[in-house]
Amino acid sequence: MADVEMKQANAKPAKDAEEKKKEEQKPIPISPVAEIKSNVLLIDRAVTTLEPRFTHRVLRTLTALRKRIDDSVLRNAIESIYPKDHAVKKNLLAWLPSGPSSTGQEMDVDTSSKTSQAELVPEAEMYLRLLILLHLLASEETQEKALELANETAEKMQALNRRSMDAIAAKIWYAVDRAYELAGELSDARPMFLAAQRTASLRHDDEAQAALINCLLRSYITYNLYDQADKLVSKTTFPPSASNAQFARFHYYLGRIRAVQLNYTEAHTNLQQAIRRAPPAKTAPGFYQAVHKYFVVVELLMGDIPDRSLFRHVVLEKALTAYFDIVKAVRTGSLAQFQSTLSKHAAQFEEDHTYTLIIRLRQNVIKTGIRRLSLSYSRISLRDICIKLNLDSEEDAEYIVGKAIRDGVIEGRIVHDKGWMECGTQKNAYGPEVSEVFGRRIAFCLDLHNQSVKAMRYPLNAHRKELAAAEGAREREKELAKEIQDGELDEDDIGPDF
Amino acid sequence: MAANLKTYYEELGRAFHSKPSDLKKCQALLPKLKIGLIEAGLLLPQGDVNLGDLSVARDILEVGAYVSIRSKDIPSFDRYFSQLQTFYTDYSESLPPSKREYPIRGLHLIRLLTQNRIADFHTALESLDPDVIAENPFIKHPVNLERWLMEGSYSKVWSAREEAPSEEYKFFVDSLMGTIRNEIASCEETAYESLPLKDAATLLFFTTQSEVITFAQQRGWQVDLTAGTVTFKRKDEEKMEIPKQRIIAASLAYARELEQIV
User: Fold this and answer.
1) CATH code for the domain defined by B1-41+50-98
2) From the CA of A339, how many Å to the nearest CA of chain B?
């Protein structure tokens, strides 16, 4: 399956190297080395103050940072963060090729100030390991090394078992998964992931759990083991506190599973969720395209025709051309056109793993054709249906029309002795289901509101201040009331004098 | 592998390959063999095991699957199939491919079709290579059947029943015909007001009138023997009812939620 978000990073290094040169000449707000260092400090603060949000802040910059690191940046960063003969430092540096001169210019300045620093938290080491891992994964020659590092890191991470490491651990698991996938050994990693997933769920390590469930689903789906993937989904609960990106992935995988199982409605909801939760189209075009491919197919399978504007979207236009052709064929209800489009784009559909789904569309094409006929004719002979829809025989046509009537595609009946189909009028579509749909939408809005209320941050003790202010206000009010009373009394007092 | 396992295995091979196969003997031998496999840790292999042993284990299970089909024991076929899955998916790289793999997979697909388990059918299909689906006769057959069933081309299904790629497939034909007859019947109920008996028979692939009449009685159709027609009961237009309970509940829920917001 194409994970273009990653691919992009893979394809880029060559270009990146050139770009980096250019970038370095430009004044950059903060150098990658400095950024890594400040990130490590932030992680340290997060662990000591038990405030996970600092770690989250660090991880948010990960994607941007990943594109800017190279060997020397990492080396300099590690050199400056750890004191001279630190065991961890040697360990980490061993993963990087020894550069010509490891003494960067700015590093000298920093080491003097940092040598006195107290022992760093293991989370910082993990963060650096993650960076090295991502860097190794980016180029093809170092992928083997990445796999080794991934294994070592995963072991170490599990041995440490620190709750403050959860957020970083989730990212590391993702990198481990990627390392295995690039090495083509994804199925070998499954037992490890399953064990880790169990541990994570026992420890309520939501982030790692979310990441691991997605890794497992990905692994199952790559090998087309939809049955196992479905069982995994039914046996686990996806942690509701997972990040948006993980949710988007999860919904995407779930959508694919449901589509295979013919549960198109659920597949549609899941894919829609995946699209909504996905990062903007421009930043992660690969995911956006992959989800939309399935989305279009599922919508067709449900009997809907996707919006035309979708195919004019800048990111999607090129990727979805083949699907656009299919949509056109289904819309016109022409089996011949459908078959020719299918064979023309077969290679692409197979690559996208949508081929089997698209084959299922055949019956939809027929149904659309029959519906068009039933709308335009009030009575049509089975023979004409047969010719118009390119069916093999009249008998087939009779069965097919019968099935369409039973499935509620068209309203009508067959008059057997005369050999024609009589079409009835369309049913009035306004019924209790309208209120149901309306109710669903209201429920969605209310849920959205509740979710956003829950998502707000309430700083500790902040309400005290408010309380104090309220208290003060009440106090003032009382005084005012008193004054007014006094004033009134005064007035009263004054009154008689007048 | 234990010695007695080996002798049993050879006996099973002889009993299965003799013509006609000695089903009784196979059925007697299989439980013993399965116990042997469990003792040798081969029924659900884990870790590194001898490849030769594995293919023997697979062979035994495959014979088991065939024997259960021939003796019409479907639940037992299901069990053998799920045990075989380990060999077909997890050891597909290390083991030499078995020539019985696709026939058995095809049988499994047909079995899902006859039970109308279309979702499972597609899930199982998804794990196969697209080339196999398009080329392999054992897989192509159920795939085509499914497509025709979904389209409603029942006459194609009917005519394809004789083209089964192997003997075992024919066992499922009867139950498959039962499935499609019911499908056709439910289509007829909504699509026709009445049908001549003769035409009803051809549509339902019955050869004699008496078969149609018994079938019609089962489905509760009115048969008019003098006119020679079948009349289908019209379902009355469903009365539209206002779902009071639900509307009240929903309104109360909205009120509560709004109260929380304001």
Assistant:
1) 1.25.40.990
2) 14
